[in-house]
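Weekly puzzle thread! Below is a chain. First person to post its structure in token form gets bragging rights.
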Amino acid sequence: VQLVESGGGLVQAGGSLRLSCAASGIFFSIFAMDWYRAAPGKQRELVASIGSGGNTNYADSVKGRFTVSRDNGKKTMYLQMNSLRPEDTAVYYCFVPVLRTWGQGTQVTVSS
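Winning reply:
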């Protein structure tokens, strides 16, 4: 099982980024998946989740700004991040809870 995140980068406050998490080695469509983030000096926190049926949940801090989605044909999960804030700066990870598998992370930096 391998998860590979991409799409991170440096963006100004108010900007947008789209993260991707490409999976391999798993029957992608049956698994719920999560996006987590880890800011410097802080614990990793759950940002968004998407179930196998497409149901979604979000942390209060990102509701209305972030959207999680998945393309089962491409075995890829996405995180569309709009209206980014400096406090969104973190390394973002994708995670498959049932398999307890993490990606390597992608850095998102939001400048003020």
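Puzzle host: Confirmed. Bonus trivia for everyone else. The radius of gyration is 13 Å.
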